[in-house]
Amino acid sequence: MQHPSKLPNIGTTIFTTVGNLARKHNAIDLSQGFPNFEADNRLLDLVSKAMHDGHNQYAPMPGYYGLRDVISQKIETLHGHSYHPESEITVTVGATQAIFTAITAFVHPNDEVIVLKPAYDCYEPAIALNGGVPVYLELKAPSFAVDWTAFKNLISPKTKMVIINTPHNPSGRIFSRGDMLQLQEVLRRTNILLLSDEVYEHIVFDGQQHESASRFKDLASRSFICASFGKTFHVTGWKMGYCAAPKHLMDEFRKVHQFNVFSVDHPTQRAMAEYLNTKEHYTHLNRFYQEKRDFFTKGVDGSRFICKPSQGTYFQLLDYSNITDEADTDFAKRLITDYKLASIPISSFNLNNRDDKVLRFCFAKKEETLERALDILQGI
Ligand code: PMP
Ligand code: GLN
C-alpha cells in the first residue's frame, strides 16, 4: 500500500536528532530548550494536592475557569488589555497546540501566512497541513532586525495570517515598541490575523519591556497570544499553555480545540491557578535568567566565539566563524562527538537552511553545567 505523505519534506526535528546524539555521546546538553533544574516545590505540591483533592476527571473544554480567570488578570495587570475568561482564553497543551489550533481554525488552502525566518519549527508544518502557503521574510544575523517596508511588500490579497515570535527563538531578539507600532500600522484596515508566539514573555533582559501584541489595541483585535507555562515555570514536560484572543476568533479556535484535545490535564490546571496568583512567581524570572545569561556570556569572553548578548529567551547565539568555516550542522556534530557539548545549528531555523556559522546554546541550566560547558568553549 502506498500513502503519499502530507509532509513529504519534513524529517525528525533537529531537537530530537541533536538530543539523541548528545545522549549517545554523553555530552553536556545545551541544545533543546529546557531547564536542568527543578521547578518550585510549592508548584509540585499543589499538583499533588489537586490530585488528592479529587480533581482527576475532565476539566471544562476551554480550561478550568479559575485558571482562565488568573490568566486574564495577569494579562490585564501586565499589558492593560482585558480578555474575558469565559470566552477569550483557552488552556492548551503547551503553546504548540495553541499555535496548531489557531492555524488550523483559520488557514484555508492557498491562504498565505507570513513567517519571519529564522523561525521556530512548529509553524510551517501546521501551515502546510492546512494547505496554506508560507511567505517568508528573512531576518539576517547578527541584528535580526525586521525591514518593515519589505514586510509590507509581502502582503497580498491572499494574506490570511502573520506569525511573530517575541522574545525570539533562536536569535534572542525582542521586538521593540517601534516594531510593534510598525506592524500595527501595516495590518491596520486589513483582515489579516496575527499569531503572536510569546512563550518567552517573562524572560526579557536589561530592564526592557516585553511588548505583547495585547498592548496594542488594533493588534489585539486580530491576535492570538500564545503562551507556555512549561517555559515560565521550568516544567516543559507538563506541556501546558494558553491562547488569548477576542471572542469572535476564540469561538472558531475552540471549535477545533474541542475535537483535537477537548480539554487539558485537570490537576495541573488547578495547581497553576493557585501558583499564578502570586505575581513574584513569574516577575522574578527576568532577573533570574539575566544572571544566567550574564554568567554564560562573561564565561564566553576571551574565547574564539563571537557573542552578542541575547535580549530575551533562554538562548544565546555564538558565532564560530573565527574558528572554522565548516557548515554549522557539521560543527555542531563535531562539538558533540569530539568535545561532548551539544548545541543547535541555527541553519535548521533559517530559510533554505542558510548557514550563518552560528550555534544556539540554552543557558537554562545549573551553574555547574554552564561552568563545564564554558570550560569546553574556552578550549576550542
Ligand atoms: N514557540 C517557541 C518559540 C518555542 O521555543 C517553543 C518551545 N517551548 C514553543 C513555541 C512550544 O512551547 P510548548 O512547549 O509550551 O508547546
Ligand atoms: N522549544 C524548544 C527549543 O527551541 C524545543 C521543544 C521541542 O523539542 N519541540 O529548544
TrEMBL record:
The alphabetized UniProt keywords are:
Aminotransferase, Pyridoxal phosphate, Transferase
Matching InterPro entries: Aminotransferase_I/II_large, Kynurenine-oxoglutarate_AT, PyrdxlP-dep_Trfase, PyrdxlP-dep_Trfase_major, PyrdxlP-dep_Trfase_small
Q: Does the keyword Transferase apply?
A: yes
User: Which intervals hold domain Aminotransferase class I/classII large?
Assistant: 27-376
Sample GO molecular function, one term: transaminase activity
Keyword check for Oxidoreductase, yes or no.
no
The stretch of residues making up the signal peptide is: none
Q: Which cofactor does it need?
A: pyridoxal 5'-phosphate
What is the name of this protein? Methionine aminotransferase
